[in-house]
Amino acid sequence: MMRIEERVPLAPCTTLGVGGSARFFADCTSEAEIGDALHDARTHKIPVAILGGGSNTLIPDVGFDGLVIKVSIPGMTFADEGEGSMATVGAGVSWDAFVREASERTLWGIENLAGIPGTVGGAVVQNIGAYGSELAETFVACDTVLLANGASKTIDRSLAALAYRTSLFKHRRDLVITRATFRLAKRGTPNLAYPGLKEAQERGDPLATPGEIAEAVRRIRSEKFPHGEGTAGSFFKNPILPLAQVEALKKRFPELPTSALGEGRAKIALAWILDHVLNLRGYARGPVRMFERQPLALVTSPRARAEDVEALAHDIAKRVRETIGIDIEREVETLRAK
Ligand code: EPU
Predict the structure, then answer these.
(1) Contact between 275 and 295 (Cβ < 8 Å)
(2) Last-in-domain residue among 53, 71, 89
(3) Which residues of the chain have a pLDDT value below 70?
(4) What is the pLDDT of residues 252-302, one digit of tens each?
(5) Distance CA 125, CA 171 (A)
(6) What's the gap in Å between 131 CA and the centre of ligand 1?
(7) Quick check: 270 and 320 in contact, CB under 8 A?
(8) Is residue 233 within 6 Å of ligand 1 at its C-beta?
(9) For residue 95, what pLDDT is reported?
(10) Domain of residue 25, CATH code
(11) Is 234 a catalytic residue?
(12) What pLDDT is recorded for position 79?
């Protein structure tokens, strides 16, 4: 049974581990429970915020003066489909648990996304990507509940507008994802082009099955990202810029890694700028710092507050603006009302 709790600290619900409490909090394990919680919120006219795995969310120090719904819908089903399998997964399932289950079944398509923290719902919202792969490659559709009246609505891939670390769900904040469907393949070719995987291949590591690739990706990630400390992975997105601007930057910084995206735009590696141009590896402000091995990842110590995170994030954004004239965007989102 879903219970609405009061004054629940939210910091432990997130991987950054900072911020205040929720006035009300409901951990929902089904569409019906989400519907009930939304109904309560409407009746009492209180704002609602949605939380998944908390791996990409910054909780303000003041917390949230409303109802936080944590989406914990479980369940994974796989339906055979000739060449492939349609996987339907509850939004509250841990993304990596889904990758493990797919690997067990030797299904291809999400193995390069192994080891990413967070839930399946959150993974769809921000179209997670890593090691040369993106959730969009396998995403078919998702079920949602409308905040305003609890009605269900299925959003298919053409409507979902998945793009680099974004989707319809970033703008349509009135849609709560409850379940998502992915098309996985029974046969596949390893995608080992990304640095790290290429090196593993050159070393002769086993990389023939989705499970072996997923394990290799988890190993690479564990070497590159902090553990035992608060973090949300990349705190900022890699900037996407018009080619002319990228060319101008390449003149100044010939080594800057870039990747063409088509439509006259390219993505630049912000980690490289933070490292080689701004020298910000390990740069600390009080209890927060940019990670030594991956300066795009912000790291918090247990006594950090959201205001410390904000101060460092503003400082970094200002330095980037002043040095290369680009306004960077956050990948991490602040918890706010839907
Ligand atoms: N680099 C440096 N110095 C460093 C670290 C990196 O110069 O200290 C350079 C690297 O040599 C590389 C470039 O910066 O050429 C990019 O670095 P990396 O491959 O580590 O990836 P990233 O672009 O910083 C993105 C995703 C990660 C994902 C990795 C691996 C974004 C915002 N981040 O990071 O996703 O794991 O690629 O594919 O797109 C996340 O979204 O939270 C996340 C961790």
Answers:
(1) yes
(2) 71
(3) 1
(4) 999 999 999 988 999 999 999 999 999 999 999 999 999 999 999 999 999
(5) 10
(6) 9
(7) yes
(8) yes
(9) 98
(10) 3.30.43.10
(11) yes
(12) 98
Any residues with CB less than 8 A from the CB of 248 and at least 6 apart, and which?
none
- Whether 331 is a known active-site residue: answer yes
What is the spatial distance between Cα 89 and Cα 101, in angstroms, rounded to a whole number? 11
pTM score above 0.90 = yes
Name which of 294, 281, 304, 278 is nearest 331 in CA terms.
Answer: 294
| Same-domain status, 84 and 102 | yes
What stretches of the chain show up as alpha helix (H) in DSSP?
Answer: 31-43, 95-104, 120-125, 157-160, 168-171, 197-203, 210-224, 243-252, 270-272, 306-324
Last residue of some domain: 161, 185, 209?
185
In a domain? residue 225: no
Does 210 reside within a domain? no
Average pLDDT, the chain: 96
Q: How far is the CA of 271 from the centre of ligand 1 (A)?
A: 6
Q: Which domain holds residue 265?
A: 230-334
Q: How far is the CA of 215 from the centre of ligand 1 (A)?
A: 19
